[in-house]
Design brief:
There is one protein chain. By secondary structure, this protein is mainly alpha-helical. It has 16 helices and three strands. It has a three-stranded mixed sheet with strand order 1-2-3, with no helix packed on it. Helix 3 packs antiparallel against helix 6, helix 5 runs antiparallel to helix 6 and helix 7 packs antiparallel against helix 15. The longest helix has 49 residues. The mean pLDDT is 93.
Length: 418
C-alpha cells in the first residue's frame, strides 16, 4: 500500500469532519437560540394558564386559530414529525412554514391547556431549521438530510437538556435497526451546542432524583422485568389510543374546524368531570409527583386520554412528554401497589414507555442516564430491553421503518402498526 493510499481516506475524513463541524455549529447555534425562545414561550404560556383558569375556555378559539393558520399557509396536509422523518428516509421536503407554525400552534395549545408536550414540536422546528440551512448553503440532497437531523438534535437538546440522547435520537428514530452513523459527529456537536446556548439563555435542563434505588439482586431484577412487560402493554395501548383518536375524529368530522371545536368541548367537559387540571399541558408536575411517589392510580390512564383527545383533533405539540408522564405515573402506581419504591418504579416506567412508543433503545438508555444519573444503569438497560422487545411494531410515528425484525435476525422493512 502506497503512502497516497494511506493518506487519501484520512484527508477525506478530515474534510468531512471540518465541513460538518462548521455546519453543525451553524445549525446547532440557530437551533439552540430557537429552542430556548420556544421553551421560554411555552413556559410563559403554561405559567399564565396556571394563574388564570379561564384560559381553558378559550380552547375552541385557539383551536380554530390553529386550523386557520395551517390552512392560510397551505399546510393543511402537513404531517408534522412524520414529514420530518420522511424527509430523511425519502426525498420529501420539510416546508419552510413548518417551523413557525409548530412554534405558534404549540404555544397556543399550552396556553389553553391542551395535553401535549414540546419535544415532538422540537423535532419539527429543528428539522425546519436544518432544512433551511441546507438550502441556504446549497447542500446536496444527502447532506441536507444530515442537516435536518442536526436541527432535530439541536432543538431537542435545547428544550430537554439531554444533549447526548438528543444527538443519538435523530440517528435512531428514522429506521429501526439502522443508525445513520454519517450524522453522528454533526448531530452530537449540534446537540451539545444547542443545549449549551439554551442553558446560557436561562432554560434549565430536566433532571430527577431517584429517592430509593434498590440493590441489584434477583428479586429487584424480577420486578423490573415484570414492570417492563406491563409497560410494553401500556405503550401499545397508548399508541393505539393516539392513532385511533385521530382516525375517529377524521371519520366523524371531515371539516377540521368542526373537528377541533368538538375536541375542545370534549376536553373542557372531561376537565370539569375530573375536577383537576393536572392533565392539562405537559403535566410536568405529575412527573415530579410520580418521582416523589405521590400520584393517584388513575392518573396514567387519564393523561393518555386527555392527550388523545387533544392531539388527535389537531392541537399541536408533541407526544414525548405526555408519554413520559404516563410512564412515570404508571410505574409509580405499580410500585405503590406492590410495595416497591415508587420513585424507582416511576423512573423505570418513564424509560420503558419512552422506548415502547419510540422504538429507540439506545437513545432511551442515554436519556434515562441523563435524567436520573448512572446509578440505575443496570435496571434501565433491562427494562428498556424488555419493553422494546414486547411492544412489537407499534410506535408514535407512522413514518418510521422497522428495517430489521425485533425478534429474528432478518430484514423486514415494514411500517409500524396503526
Amino acid at each position: 500500500m502506497t503512502l497516497y493510499e494511506v493518506r487519501k481516506p484520512f484527508i477525506q475524513n478530515t474534510r468531512y469532519f471540518l465541513k460538518w463541524t462548521a455546519i453543525s455549529c451553524i445549525v446547532g447555534g440557530a437551533g439552540g437560540v430557537a429552542g430556548a425562545c420556544f421553551a421560554k414561550c411555552v413556559a410563559w404560556a403554561t405559567s399564565f394558564r396556571q394563574g388564570h383558569d379561564w384560559t381553558l375556555y378559550l380552547m375552541p378559539l385557539a383551536g380554530l386559530l390553529i386550523v386557520f393558520l395551517y390552512r392560510v399557509s397551505h399546510e393543511e396536509k402537513n404531517r408534522g414529525t412524520n414529514m420530518v422523518i420522511d424527509s430523511i428516509s425519502s426525498n420529501e421536503e420539510v416546508t419552510l412554514a413548518t417551523g413557525p407554525l409548530i412554534f405558534v400552534s404549540t404555544v397556543l395549545t399550552h396556553l389553553v391547556g391542551g395535553s401535549s408536550g414540546r419535544e415532538g414540536a422540537a423535532l419539527q422546528l429543528g428539522g425546519s431549521i436544518g432544512n433551511l440551512a441546507g438550502n441556504l448553503i446549497r447542500l446536496d440532497e444527502k447532506d441536507k438530510k444530515i442537516a435536518v437531523m442536526c436541527g432535530m438534535s439541536a432543538v431537542f437538546a435545547a428544550l430537554f437538556g439531554t444533549p447526548a440522547a438528543a444527538g443519538i435520537f435523530s440517528l435512531e428514530v428514522v429506521s429501526i435497526g439502522v443508525l445513520y452513523y454519517a450524522a453522528l459527529v454533526p448531530c452530537l456537536f449540534a446537540a451539545f451546542l444547542g443545549a449549551s446556548i439554551s442553558r446560557r439563555m436561562g432554560v434549565p435542563a430536566e433532571s430527577y432524583r431517584i429517592l430509593d434505588l434498590p440493590s441489584f439482586h434477583l428479586g429487584s431484577v424480577a420486578y423490573v422485568v415484570f414492570l417492563g412487560v406491563l409497560c410494553a402493554i401500556v405503550s401499545i395501548g397508548l399508541c393505539m389510543m393516539l392513532h385511533k383518536a385521530e382516525h375517529l375524529y377524521k371519520k366523524k368530522f371531515e371539516n377540521p374546524y368542526i373537528r377541533i371545536l368538538a375536541a375542545s368541548v370534549l376536553f373542557i367537559a372531561l376537565t370539569m368531570l375530573c375536577g383537576t387540571r393536572e392533565y392539562l399541558g405537559g403535566s410536568m408536575q405529575l412527573i415530579e409527583h410520580a418521582v416523589e411517589g405521590q400520584v393517584r392510580y388513575e392518573d396514567f390512564l387519564l393523561k393518555a386520554l386527555f392527550t388523545a383527545v387533544a392531539l388527535g383533533a389537531g392541537f399541536r405539540g408533541g407526544e414525548i412528554v405526555p408519554t413520559l408522564c404516563v410512564g412515570a405515573t404508571f410505574g409509580c402506581t405499580v410500585g405503590t401497589l406492590l410495595g416497591i419504591a415508587p420513585s424507582f418504579s416511576a423512573a423505570c416506567g418513564m424509560a420503558a414507555l419512552f422506548v415502547g412508543v419510540t422504538n429507540c433503545p439506545i437513545s432511551t438508555l442515554v436519556i434515562a442516564l441523563e435524567l436520573f444519573g448512572g446509578e440505575g444503569l443496570w435496571f434501565f438497560a433491562i427494562i428498556i430491553a424488555v419493553s422494546f422487545t414486547l411492544s412489537g411494531y407499534y410506535g408514535l410515528y407512522s413514518s418510521q421503518k422497522f428495517v430489521y425484525s425485533k425478534t429474528r435476525t432478518e430484514y423486514i422493512n415494514r411500517k409500524p402498526n396503526s
